[in-house]
Amino acid sequence: MQAGKSLSTRILLHSVVWVFFFLAPLLLSPPGDFAKAFLEPDNLLSLVLRNGLLIGLFYLNLFYLAPQLLFKKGVLLYAFVAILMIVIVSLINWQIHHHLSEPFGPPLPWEKMDPPPMSPMDGDMNPMRDPGPPLNMPSGRPKSLMFASPIFSSYLLTTLVIIFSTSLFLWEDWNRTKERAREQEFERQNAELAALKLQISPHFLFNTLNNIRWLVRSKSDQAEDSLVKLSQLLRYILYQTTNEKVELSRELEHLSGYIELQKMRLAETNTIDFEINGIAENKFIVPLLLLPIAENLFKHADFSAGQRNSLKIQIDDHRLIVESENKYLPKSENPEKENSGIGLQNLQKRLRIHYPDKHVLQISIRNDRFYLQLELLIN
After folding, report:
1. pLDDT tens-digit profile of 242-301?
2. Is the peptide bond before 103 cis (omega within 30 degrees of 0)?
3. Domain range summary for the chain, segments of one domain joined by +
């Protein structure tokens, strides 16, 4: 539909330009001269033929010469063919003008009159003297519509047609190149987002299944509840994340379920504080955006007795603030760190794609503690 509309707009624009091109002599000529010249059928035919040749040359260059020669064969060959076409069309138009438009119409009435007999009283005794038009009749023919000589005007106009046609082709080609680049970037981002989601799901499943295995081995009554929560989370991932954005309340509900699932394996459940403050209704966010922050916390935090870890979410109007804090364990104390970092890398990539210039992500380590703060403009 959009392509059809664009084509109709182009056709209308070209039609308006060519109508103006035909009427340009009328707009640029002195009052009356154009009308006198147009009364002659030969002159009208000349104008139609010459302009028709120029229009044909315009589209021949736009749709064939420039696309086939300029980019595929090189500038030199295109320039040679373009100059040759200018010469040929200019000479043809000049000949059409010469045979049909000069002179404009038949001789004027007084030009057919025989010269009156000479009188001795005349000051000029030359019998070949042209008596000129009668005093009560206009002198001269309608002026030519060209400001310069016909051959020069023909070359100039034909050259301008080639220049404008080539410029239009280059402009349209530049726009097409930009459009293709935008489409390729859009497709690249979609492919990257799809890959990121595929990375998120296995990462999440890997961690969660490890937790459930630990619960089963320890014969915990929470094993069945954990499977129910896992099925709910998987249903959310399968059916809710196909949309570009989801309701913030649903995303936070999913995040809370994940945290409850992870807390099942903790001996000291009071070693983590999870808070949500603010109103999440009627706000939207990219799905699974906050999950890597919680994953990173549970993967690297120290949940032994006496340790404090926190994940706090604050919603203020159109701003979402996420703060995470936990004890930083070096690689020697946490062998899982060898393969860590996928979640936060995904988070950074998705923020750059979905929220350019609309987020601030700060990650730091101070006094053996890991700090993460994300400020995000939503809606």
Report:
1. 777 889 999 999 899 888 888 877 777 788 899 999 999 999 998 888 988 998 888 888
2. yes
3. 2-106+144-181, 220-377
pLDDT by residue (tens digit) across 194-244? 666 655 556 667 767 887 888 888 888 778 888 888 888 888 877 776 777
Instruction: Identify each DSSP E strand in the chain by its residue range.
Output: 246-247, 272-277, 284-285, 309-316, 319-327, 359-366, 369-377
Contact partners, residue 257, CB within 8 Å, separation at least 6: 229, 232, 233
242: three-class secondary structure by DSSP:
coil
Distance of CA 372 to CAs 188, 259, 325, 355, Å? 29, 17, 7, 18
Copy the structure tokens of residue 183: 């489409």
What is the C-alpha to C-alpha distance for residues 234 and 282, in angstroms, rounded to an integer? Answer: 24
List, in order, residues 6 or more apart from 300 with CB less than 8 Å away: 326, 328, 329, 334, 336, 337, 340, 370
Q: What are phi and psi of 220, to 5 degrees?
A: -80, 145
Cα→Cα distances 229→18, 223, 255, Å: 70, 10, 11
Distances (CA, A) of 200 to 222, 350, 351: 25, 11, 14
Chain CA centroid to CA 331, Å: 47
Tokens of 324: 């995470």
99, two tokens:
């045979």
Q: Are strands 309-316 and 272-277 parallel, antiparallel or unpaired?
A: parallel
The residues, any chain, with a CB within 8 Å of residue 328's CB and separated by 6 or more, are 300, 365, 368, 369, 370
Q: For residue 67, what is the DSSP state?
A: I
CB 65 within 8 Å of CB 85: yes
Say how many C-beta atoms besides its own lie within 10 A of residue 254's C-beta: 22
Rounded to two decimals, the pTM is 0.51
Neighbours of 323 (CB within 10 A): 17
Contact 254, 290 (CB under 8 A): no
As a dihedral over the C-alpha atoms of residue 12, residue 15, residue 17, residue 22, rounded to 10 degrees, the angle is -160
Q: How far apart are CA 321 and CA 315, in angstroms?
A: 6
First to last CA, the chain: 29
Determine whether domain 220-377 maps to CATH 1.10.760.10.
no
User: CB burial class (10 A; 0-12, 13-18, 19+) of residue 339?
Assistant: exposed
